[in-house]
Design brief:
The protein has 448 residues and is an alpha/beta fold. 32% of the residues lie in helices and 22% in strands. The protein has 4 domains: 127 residues, Response regulator (Rossmann fold); 130 residues, Transcription Regulator spoIIAA (2-Layer Sandwich), CATH 3.30.750.210; 117 residues, Transcription Regulator spoIIAA, CATH 3.30.750; 59 residues, OB fold (Dihydrolipoamide Acetyltransferase, E2P). It has 13 helices and 19 strands. The strands form 5 sheets. The chain has a 6-stranded parallel β-sheet with strand order 2-1-3-4-5-6, with helices on both faces. Strand 1, helix 1 and strand 2 form a beta-alpha-beta unit. Helix 9 runs parallel beside helix 11 and helix 12 packs parallel to helix 13. The protein starts with a strand and ends with a strand. 44% of the residues are buried.
């Protein structure tokens, strides 16, 4: 019988793309992939260093796996496994911990360990973790088969030195896939009937830096999106998250007139205070951010703009926070992703003076989440009466099917399996009690 493997992914779209690629490697080696809630011979947990209480969350997931099969083999991979391998290896039930370079070779490590029945005689977990400087090569990834959208990795690592961030320690230097590889992966995704690709990476606006720390850009991010726009069979292309200093006017103008790229941008801000931005060592000030938002709205008035913001950074006074709150309140953006600052080992911010008490951090976070709800509602209200194209998802949620318009408005209608992974023109009519938008069909299915 085939051995069974199950996966659990924490964190970002990039992690999902890598889990999917690693899972395909297991299938090609003769494993059967099953859901994490089912009994399996092996459980692979792809960890995240950004998740609050990452160690506690990880222990809970390990317990869940071993509840399904007490003799299962458990492996930890990903960012947290790179940063804190000994900590994860010490968790009861863990057999293997793989860092940044080793995770893609996981099938090379497993057969001997699986054959030794680790669940019956657990010893100390094996750790294979590199020095992060060795993570100087690129492994392409994409997610497929999990949902109606595919996440396509185009870049990895980061050369920025933001004072709060562990990503450079977990993923290494900035490096990119070749343009030909990206286009080949996109064509492969299109051949599977997937209608939407989300471009992902750690710092995708930095696309073009080659392997081994080569800082010369063979191609730019603009070259990348122009080439992807010509791939046949993909109806939608979406840019996941891009730094404001790397989002150029040429990119905005190209998206506005593109065949496939949708009017949706997610742009990290982190703080609306120039003083805090400097402490964070961000590569822009708030004026540049304002200019980016204005440029997008001039080119695409209906565009959706999402914002990342961190509250409670060391030294953030009430005045700094209110500066951020009022800045965002007045800015023409659509929603916020709010992160409550938490100290990370080996980051400059963790050693800074002016730590903000946890209760104050939580209060500020709650205020910004309230502002986000108001922003999203206002954006949705402004779109009522307009005709948009929706791509329907594949899940029956309490009798409804959900979907997203090109400008990232979440809609719902009574469940109909025939709608899964189809595109339809709709007119947005009203906002329901749960905040999602109802609609009327304008046309039958749109051909991709």
């Amino acid at each position: 019988m085939k051995k069974k493997v199950a996966f659990y992914t924490l964190g970002c779209k990039l992690n999902f793309s890598e889990t999917s690629t690693i899972a395909r490697g297991f299938v090609s080696e003769g494993f059967e992939r099953v859901d994490f809630s089912q009994p399996a011979d092996m459980y692979v947990i792809n960890t995240c260093s950004v998740t609050d209480n990452a160690d506690r969350r990880f222990k809970t997931i390990v317990r869940q796996a071993l509840k399904n099969n007490p003799e299962a083999f458990v492996a930890a991979i990903g960012c947290y496994a790179q940063l804190k391998p000994e900590e994860l290896a010490a968790v009861d039930g863990v057999d293997l911990v793989l860092g940044a370079t080793e995770k893609f070779k996981i099938t090379d490590y497993i057969y001997d360990l699986l054959n030794s029945h680790p669940g019956q005689n657990r010893g100390v977990a094996q750790i294979h973790s590199c020095e992060i400087e060795e993570a100087d090569f690129y492994v392409g990834s994409y997610s497929i088969g999990d949902r109606t959208r595919a996440f396509l990795k185009v870049q990895d690592g980061c050369d920025y030195k933001c004072t709060y961030c562990t990503i450079p320690l977990a993923r290494g230097i900035s490096r990119s896939d070749t343009l030909n590889n990206v286009l080949g992966n996109a064509a492969q995704i299109a051949s599977q009937g997937i209608r939407e690709i989300v471009l992902t990476g750690v710092n995708i606006g930095d696309y073009g830096k080659g392997e081994f720390g080569n800082k010369k850009h063979e191609h730019t991010f603009l070259d990348l999106i122009k080439a992807l726009d010509k791939v046949s069979g993909i109806h939608r292309l979406r840019i996941s998250s891009i730094e404001p200093n790397l989002l150029k006017n040429e990119t905005i103008d190209f998206v506005a007139n593109s065949n496939s790229f949708v009017p949706h941008f997610h742009i990290p801000l982190q703080s609306g205070s120039d003083e805090i931005l400097k402490l964070m060592r961000r590569r822009y000030l708030r004026n540049l951010y304002t200019e980016r938002v204005q440029r997008i709205k001039e080119a695409m008035p209906h565009a959706c703009i999402g914002v990342d913001v961190i509250v409670g950074f060391p030294g953030e006074t009430d005045a700094h926070f209110l500066e951020t709150y009022h800045f965002l309140n007045e800015l023409d953006v659509s929603y916020l992703h709010v992160f409550t600052y938490s100290e990370r080992d080996n980051t400059p911010a963790a050693r800074m003076d002016g730590a903000v008490p946890k209760n104050i951090r939580n209060k500020r976070s709650k205020m910004l989440r309230g502002l986000s709800a108001k922003k999203r509602r206002a954006f949705y209200e402004g779109q009522l009466g307009s005709v948009r194209t929706v791509l329907f998802e594949g899940e029956n949620k309490e009798g409804y099917i959900h979907g997203f318009t090109e400008n990232y408005i979440k809609v719902k209608t009574p469940w109909d399996p025939e709608l899964v992974n189809t595109l339809h023109e709709i007119e947005l009519t009203k906002i329901d009690g749960d905040g999602l938008v109802r609609f009327e069909f304008v046309e039958s299915e749109v051909e991709a």
